[in-house]
Amino acid sequence: MIRLGLYFRTIKYLRWEQIYYQLFFRLKRKIFNRMPELAFAPTPRQLTLVKSIPSAQCYQKNKFVFLNNEMLFGSHIDWNCNAFGKLWTYNLNYFDFLHQEKMEINEAVNLIDDYCNNAAILKDGVEPYPISVRLINWIKFFALNNINNPRYNAVLYSHCSHLASNLEYHLLGNHLLENGYALFFASYYFSESDFYKKAKKILRSELVEQVKKDGAHFELSPMYHQILLARLLDCINLAKSNNSNEELLPLLQSTAMKMIGWLKAVTFQNGDIPMVNDAISGIAPSSREIFSYASRLGVDADSSRLSDSGYRMIRVRRMEMFLDIGNIGPDYIPGHAHSDTFNFILYVDNRPLLVEAGTSTYAVGTQRIIERSTASHNTVIVNEKNQSEVWSSFRVGKRATIIRTEENDHKIRASHDGYASLNVVHERSWGWLEDEFEIVDEIIGGRDVSAVAYIHFPPGLTPKIEGVTVHVGPVVITFKGQQHILLEQYDYATAYNKLNKGDVLKVSFKRGLETRIKLVR
Fold first, then answer.
1. For residue 28, what pLDDT is reported?
2. Residues of 72-92 as b/e, b for ≥16 C-beta within 10 angstroms?
3. pLDDT of the residue at 38
4. pLDDT at residue 49 above 80?
5. By C-alpha distance, which of 168, 100, 174 is closest to 140?
6. What is the phi/psi pair of residue 421, to 5°?
7. What is the DSSP string of 40-88?
């Protein structure tokens, strides 16, 4: 019964089309879902493109490194290799390596040849998402290197047709948007009106749906925001370079301007993004690369005042604090969300001083549950319960909702109902001066509740506790209202599949806690 309740609390937020298409595609895969036979593809257009953002170095002489796992193949690549899980196989099939710096054209062509030789036995690589990413990478590579190979085009057209018939309406979110980007590229390359109609339908609806008023991608991961923005810029590149009358161009450009403005607002001065929700370094193009690419395309940034994303960036003197006073994400697709309401991250002198545990894996298991839990973030846990009911790898049942916010030039206050089952409301306020932040937590209602505020430090920073005062780097942290201060270690995700030990403060209290973070040198 407990499990049935969890399923209900998860499923009730879904949209009807997600449930319909989940059932539809499962049935279709069992009965009809075969790749179209390779056929003579329409004659492609010779496209021109401005140079885009290079991919990270991930390939060298049949050795592939994705997600910090390395595989060396022999003379032929096992494109179905699942030694490191499905996400690694997806990365292998993306073909991002075509656009890494100093990639030899002949070597890239040999890899495409090998892929085409194995077209009949591909598995994960012919699912809609990897097709979408690979399709764009191949078309960009062909355009930039003036390649027109009938065999490549036949495989590519077969995959485009398969994608067009298997759009990810069961997942929605970033998956469906990637499908739309890919069909937009396919429509230009093959001059295919059916691809264009489907791309236009997706882009017109999803860019409006998925980009919030302040410019944030609605899944609220800065990393996915970077990925989707870079791909949007690719679409602008394609349209501006090949069709000055593209009817979607105003929408593409205005959306990109909003997204650039938001990314500028949340990027730390040293170029880092906040690693909140599912986000980790080394996956997406950097903010600097994106801003440079946008400049080459003549796309400016809209000024962004952070609002409906729920994120705020406070900059005072040598300190930058990123904080979260929003809901965890779109109700019907919270798969990349963490239980992190009222979390905050602090940089001092362009270096991280307070962080969260981060994301090292998407694999179902203990580590994934830990990293999504409330205790892995700089917020408060009550009676050892998560604010939001994160489970499995991408599931959320009952979730915390913001019930009140107040903001002015020097203070932000908000409360959430994530502990409603305990008859408790958590209220947190942040106040700031030139060299100091004050954070006040209040636990309102309930009986016999115990609260713990977590404060995570990155590896290499060792706090020193003296009574109610903690010295760390150039700041002093003091507490008022605490019962106990405990220093423990936790696993910090430095990259995907990479963990280092860091220190975490666990500050227990009953009803209220005041935390002051002050620059002392």
1. 72
2. eeeeebebeeeebeebbbbbb
3. 65
4. yes
5. 100
6. -65, -20
7. PPPPPP-------PPBP--EETTEEEETTEEEE--SS--TT--TT-HHH
16 contacts: CB under 8 Å, gap ≥ 6 = none
* Amino acid residing at 359: T
Q: What are 235's two structure tokens?
A: 């679409």
pLDDT of 220 > 90? The answer is yes
Task: From 232, 181, 187, select the one nearest 202 (Cα to Cα).
Answer: 181
How many residues in total does the chain contain? 521
Share of the chain residues as helix, strand and coil, in percent rounded to the nearest 5:
35, 25, 40
Summarize the confidence of residues 405-427 as an average pLDDT. 96
Lookup: tokens for 470: 């903690």
- Write the CA distances from 444 to 374, 452, 520, integer angstroms: 18, 14, 33
Hey, what are 498's tokens? 């990479």
Q: Can you list the pairs that 117-120 forms with residues at least 24 positions away whose Cβ atoms lie under 8 Å?
A: 117/76, 118/76, 118/77, 118/79, 119/35, 119/38, 119/155, 119/158
Pair 91, 66: CB distance under 8 Å: yes
The residue written with tokens 């940089």 in the block is: 347
Element (H, E) at 196: helix 193-210
For the record, the structure tokens of 261 come out as: 């403005």
CA distances (Å), origin 17, targets 43, 172, 244: 36, 9, 35
User: Cα separation of 24 and 26, whole Å?
Assistant: 6
Would you list the DSSP string of 345-397?
EEEETTEEEEB-------SSSHHHHHHHSGGGSSSEEETTB-SS-EETTTEE-
Residue pair 35/352 in contact (Cβ under 8 Å)? The answer is: no
- List the beta bridge partners of residue 413: 406, 429
User: 492-515: per-residue pLDDT in tens?
Assistant: 999 999 999 999 999 999 999 999
Give the mean model confidence (pLDDT) for residues 404-413: 96
SS (HEC) of 415-452? EECCCHHHCEEEEEEEEEECCEEEEEEEEEECCCCCEE
CA 202 to chain CA mean position, Å: 20
How many other C-beta atoms lie within 10 A of the C-beta of residue 419?
25
**DSSP reduced 3-state for 128:** helix
Q: Answer whether 419's CB lies under 8 Å from 441's CB.
A: no
Indicate the residue type of 113.
D
473 three-class SS = coil
